Each structure stands twice: as structure tokens, then as C-alpha cells.
Amino acid sequence: MDIARQLDPHVKRLAGEPLGALVRAGGGRDAALQWQAGPIALDARHQRLDADAMNALFALADGAGFDDARKALFAGDVVNPTEGRPALHAALRDASALKDRDYAARIEAARARTAAFARACQGADAPGGKPVTRIINIGIGGSDLGPRLVYSAMKAFRREGVDLRFVSNLDPADLEDAVEGADPETTLVCVTSKSFTTSETLMNARAAKAWLAANLGEDGANARMAAATAAPGKAEGFGIAPARIFPFEEGVGGRYSFWSAAGLCLEIALGPDVFARILEGARQIDEHFATAPAKDNLPLAKALIDVWNRAGRGLLARCVAAYSTRLELLPAYLQQLEMESLGKPVRLDGSALPAHSGGQLVWGGKGSDVQHSFFQWLHQGVDEVPVDFIAVKTLYTSDDERAKALGANLVAQSAALLDGHEGEGALAAHKTLPGGRASSVIMLERLDPEGLGALIALHEHKVFCEGLVYGLNPFDQWGVELGKLLTNDLLKGNHSRFDAASLDLARLFRL
Ligand SMILES: O=P(O)(O)OC[C@H]1O[C@H](O)[C@H](O)[C@@H](O)[C@@H]1O
């Protein structure tokens, strides 16, 4: 399917018109570019799109087999054929649609076990015999970004008296910061690694265990180590007691994993009830995604808008500006979710993807801060980059004048991107903002556990739909393997794959 060719007539038709005029034309356009699912509204009226172009996009999804594909996802079919796996993240929210009842039973049993452990950590049954006050999650990539985002976003829902810290980087400062002020007696180190082979995580886990052992001895250290992994045998081999190994399924992708035992640190820090509410919010979006007709389907619509900008209009990047301090880690989270899922060179059949297809370059930050840093580039730089404004309605409609002003900033930026401004006087050319730059608003009703779960699930399903339309596999990530191999070679002193320039660099690092 040549996506660009199918979209081209619409792209050409809409390219000539000033975006402001298109937006103000109204008519059926307003209804065709707004969607609602549970607590989330998507307003795409500031996109260079209209009802006819949307119809062409929905036809792409239909042609790619949208209905069968979503059924296959929820049924637990192998939707990740290059690794021979299903994608079970939605089943972690509700396993009832899974064909394989063994999976469903294992997922439900695993949930009960992590919840019981999280409760035990609150009292005398905690690993060290006293309530846990510090959790140190050691993990990287999907085993870090999800828990980090959720912990940050759910600040208002944290349990009192527990502090969760994250160690992902090999810079020893990461662990130093994480143990700062911690009482080893009441610390739990949670090693989160799907594969339990990731070298950063294993090195940091050894260092954390050494810190515990230096304070409490070997037995005391062992008692305070837990693991969440899809390779329980490897965690046991590392020295973690089976009673504190919490497995999850191979079919749960790393960047889709915090809903599983990989969210153990969250379940302890937020409590099992809050954690269950996050799952419930995601489940509501799952239900919407599974059942809403294509044209009303918010994750599908969002995916198609991103396909429109990337494959139709040839725009490489998308900016995510979250107008909420609590959601400031969302851009980093989406960067992994989208770029690791959709940064692929080929379709499922191995044929090459054309230029301007696959994932967008996702980047962003926290509004209104970023208005004072990179928004200059968005307004006057020579490239157009569509912006997703992530908004939290109840924040801006509170009585606090600052919160209200934060909302005003969002609306103002969206308007400035749309219409720009004609500069005047001697510096007119410098003061002119061209406008005509697309943006969307993703409005969350409120930032509570259900809302957060819904927001994340929306993006997971959006990525699934983009993978479907492009015909690629969003669930593998072969591209990250080479760097791991080369690092291991260097650490073992095997220089056979390196050229002179790389070896000069290696010598500088005493490798
Ligand atoms: O959870 P782990 O197996 O330790 O993997 C951690 C991360 O590293 C890998 O290289 C992948 O790029 C990520 O998708 C994954 O989340």
C-alpha cells in the first residue's frame, strides 16, 4: 500500500489554503476532527485536515485490516511475529478476551501476588521485618521510564512514609543519589528487568546489593532484594530468593510492561488500590479501542493524524508539550514507546518502508517552560513540526490564578502557531511569525489514576494502529542489539570489530 500516493490528492488540495481559513471554514470539519473516549478528548481542528482527508485515512486503516488486527491483539494472537509472541499489555488490564486461558490465569495470579507483597511491605511482614520506607527501582528503558512517569504523575496519590527512587544509568551518581538518606534496614531494592540480562541493570543491582551488604551483611542484603522479570531463573541465578521474584510474561513488551510485575515498585509506593485504578483507567480505553467503530475510535484517529503528518505531509517530527508539572516525564516516556516501536526500516514481510514513513521523531517538554526555550524554533524555524498540547482540564479551571494562566498559555500557543503574526516596521521580517503550523490538544479531564492509565493506554493503541497502517512490527526492537554487542566486546578487550578511529577513542577511555 503506497500511503503517500493515496494521501497525496488530499495533501495537495489542503496545502494551498491558509490553515486559519481552513479552520474557520467550520461546517462538518469541526465534528470530523474531534473525538472523545472516557476522560480524554482529542481536538485536532488545528490540523491541516478535513473530513474528506480523514475519510481517506480511515480507508487506509480499513485496508490494513483494522478490525481483525484489534481483535487479534486482545485475543492474545501472535501480533509480534518476528519474536513469535503475542502483545499482552492490554490483557494485564483485563485478561478475559485472551484465548489462552493459561495466560489469563497466570496474569491474574501474578497480580494477586504483587498486590499481597505490596501490602506486606507496609507492615511487619515486610522483607526486613519493618515497613519499607525506601524503594530503589533498578531498571532501564521500559523497566524504568514507565514506573518513573507514573510515580511522578501520581505524586498526589503516593503512600506516606515511602520514597521511591530510580537507578537506570551506569553513572555511579545514580545509585549514590538513590540511597541518599536511606535507612538500609527499611530499604527494598527492586531489580526490574524483563530479560534479566541488561548489563546496566545487573551492574547497578550488584552495586546496590553491595551497599546493603556493607550495612547489613550478606543475609540482610539478600532479604531486601526483589526482582520483577520474565526470566525468573536468571533472577534466581543472580541470588534473589524465589519468594521475592515476581514474574511476568514474555509477551509483555518492555516498553508496555509497567502494568505487570514490572510495576512492583509502583504498587508498593502508591499502594495496590491506586495501582488497580491506573489499570482500570487503561481498561476503559482498551474497551473503547476494542469496540468503538473506526471513525469514533480515538486511538485510531490519533494514529491516523500522525500518519497524515509523517507520510502524507512529510513532516519528520512531532513535539509533545505537556502543560502539567506532574506529566513532565510524558515526552520521555512517549519517546521510547513510539520511537522504539515505530523506528523500523521494513514491513512485516521484510520489504523496505518508503521514505517519510514509520515513527515520528518525538520530543518535547513541559509547558509553559518550553515556550521560553525551544518554542521560538517552532514558531519561526524553517521547518514545521506539529505539536501535541497535553492538557489537564481540572488544573486550569481551578481557582488558582497561576493554574488558570497556564491554561491561557496553552491556548495562546495553539493560536499563535495557527495564525502567526505579520510583523511591522523596519524589523517586520524578523518579527513575522508565519503561522499555518498544525497542533492538536489532548485534553485529560483530570490527572487521577484512571486518567493517567487512560492517557498511556491511548498512546499504546495509537502506536499499534500506526504499526498496522505502515505494515511494520511495533513490538520488536532489533536495532538496539548491536550497541550492546559492541560494548561487551570493548569490556572484554575484543577489538576485532573496531576501526582505527574507534580504537583511538577507546584508548582515551582506557578500554
Ligand atoms: O527490561 P530489560 O530486559 O532489562 O530491558 C530494558 C530495555 O532495554 C532494551 O535494550 C530495550 O531497548 C528496551 O525495550 C528495554 O525496555
From TrEMBL:
E.C. designation(s): 5.3.1.9
Segment forming the signal sequence: none
Gene Ontology annotations of biological process type: gluconeogenesis; glucose 6-phosphate metabolic process; glycolytic process
One Gene Ontology cellular component: cytosol
Active site: E340 (proton donor), H372, K484
Classification via SUPFAM superfamilies: SIS domain
Protein name per UniProt: Glucose-6-phosphate isomerase
Lineage: Bacteria, Pseudomonadati, Pseudomonadota, Alphaproteobacteria, Maricaulales
